[in-house]
Design a protein that fits this description.
311 residues; alpha+beta; Glutamine Phosphoribosylpyrophosphate, subunit 1, domain 1; 8-stranded mixed beta sheet; 4-stranded antiparallel beta sheet; 16 strands; binds aspartic acid
Length: 311
């Protein structure tokens, strides 16, 4: 099979002036993942490498640069999945590791469980020899990631309207999404894999977990269906099992592009004006993407071809 990798740097609306930085970071991450595939590495190695680059880049809401929660702390979520055996590992609400995606991979490969949260996730990471770092190191110097004190007050823990939609609000505004990172890849053996990492939504309540670490929501990979990495309003994406639904649409015969557009329409129709974006690869190595925000910087390299990048 011709290897392929697709990387995104989050779907959002408010970063017109920062698109160049996102493009540079996504480009670098895509090349990092592609280099792994070129050297004969697995799809899982490739997506982990790509996501680590963006976790280390303070421009993205993942690892270093994670959005702060309402207590001005970092709580990060990450997942990995591989499509041969449906291997899956995730961490949620982890606070003191630089690269949550690698801890998620350790969960998948070295534990008998699938998801670790909070202090347990950190304890697991330590037990695996992952170095812990002060939380301050993860907080970006950039003021875009810092909430003003007045914005830290939640109107309510979680308001539920008559349609049953949950909207965490900060200072009357819906929590800000964007800059979450994800990567999907297929290697020469046909293995599909996904990795997703995020600091979650800005100003989220402590303990809030979004779609990103949840199987079938933030990401999914099944060699028989395809691979998906999602971004957007986690509370909404979970309701339609955004990534698994997109993979099922590919499994039913849709092209990745058709499936990406269809799952986005489903999100809009069933969850109100929710925002999201998705990148997809099918088992034939074809690619699709869709988003309903102003930007979702994403890039792709597939066998022998030049990288393309779109925002
Ligand atoms: N989906 C992420 C979350 O809800 C946010 C994002 O994609 O920007 O935690």
């Amino acid at each position: 099979m011709e290897p392929v990798i697709v990387v995104h740097g989050g779907a959002g609306n408010d970063f017109d002036e920062r698109v160049a930085e996102f493009r540079a970071g996504v480009e670098q991450a895509t090349h990092a993942g592609w280099d792994v595939l070129l050297r004969g590495g697995s799809a899982l190695d490739a997506v982990e490498a790509a996501v680590r680059v963006m976790e280390d880049d303070p421009n993205f809401d993942a690892g270093h640069g994670s959005f702060l929660n309402a207590n001005n702390e970092v709580e990060m979520d990450a997942m990995v999945m591989e499509g041969a055996r449906l291997g899956y590992g995730a961490v949620a609400g982890i606070q003191r590791v630089s690269n949550p995606v690698s801890t998620a991979r350790l969960v998948m490969e070295r534990s008998r469980h699938s998801i670790f949260v909070g202090a347990g996730a950190e304890q697991f990471a330590r037990s695996m020899g992952v170095p812990v770092c002060p939380m301050e190191e993860l907080v970006a110097g950039s003021s875009i990631h810092l909430l003003r004190p007045e914005d830290r007050i939640f109107d309510s823990a979680c308001s539920s309207d008559s349609a049953g939609s949950n909207t965490a609000t900060v200072g009357g505004q819906a929590s800000q999404t964007g800059d979450t990172v994800g990567a999907i890849a297929m290697d020469a053996s046909g293995l599909l894999a996904v990795a997703v990492s995020t600091g979650g939504t800005a100003g989220k309540m402590p303990g809030r977990v979004g779609d990103s670490p949840i199987i079938g929501c933030g990401g999914y990979a099944d060699n028989e269906l395809g691979a998906a990495a999602a971004t957007g309003s986690g509370e909404a994406l979970m309701k339609v099992m955004f990534s698994k639904t997109a993979c099922d649409l590919m499994g039913s015969g849709m092209s990745p592009q058709q499936a990406a557009e269809q799952v986005l329409r489903l999100l809009e129709r069933r969850t109100g004006p929710s925002q999201g974006g998705i990148v997809l690869i099918n088992p034939a190595g074809e690619v699709g993407s869709a988003f309903n925000t102003s930007h979702m910087v994403h890039a792709c390299i597939s066998g022998g071809k030049e990288m393309w990048i779109r925002d």
